[in-house]
Design goal:
alpha+beta; six-stranded mixed β-sheet; 3 helices; 8 strands; 23% helix; globular
């Protein structure tokens, strides 16, 4: 299913060269990726939705840490920061604050990517 992070709750989004899961809290991990709640070295408890452990993105909210592995981490961060800045400039609407659906942004062909970028 889709993972949604409320846009209004995002405190920061940053690139991480590598994450190191120490133990599973409520998760599965291994050959095809790491999905669920893990204890991560240097982060503590975090929600991982990754297919690899290097070149990932950390999204901080007041309640949780999320780590995702978009195809292009730099572009992903750029798009999320642009969307957050646009919302701040215009004020908040209910639709804009409803959430950041990660799947369209992780997939470079998704509808949330700026046109003309790959």
């Amino acid at each position: 299913g889709n993972i949604t992070i409320p846009k209004a709750k995002i405190e920061s989004i940053t690139y991480l060269k590598r994450v190191r899961p120490i133990s599973r809290v409520s998760a599965s991990g291994g050959l095809f990726g790491y999905f669920g709640t893990f204890i991560v070295k240097d982060l503590g408890e975090a929600q991982l939705y990754v297919t690899r452990l290097n070149n990932v993105v950390l999204i901080k909210t007041p309640q949780k840490l999320y780590v995702v592995s978009p195809t292009n981490p730099g572009k992903f961060i750029k798009v999320v920061k642009y969307n957050l800045e646009t919302i701040k400039k215009r004020g908040h609407s209910r639709e804009e604050l409803s959430g950041l659906g990660l799947n369209p942004l992780i997939n470079p062909k998704g509808t949330s990517m700026p046109s003309g970028e790959k």
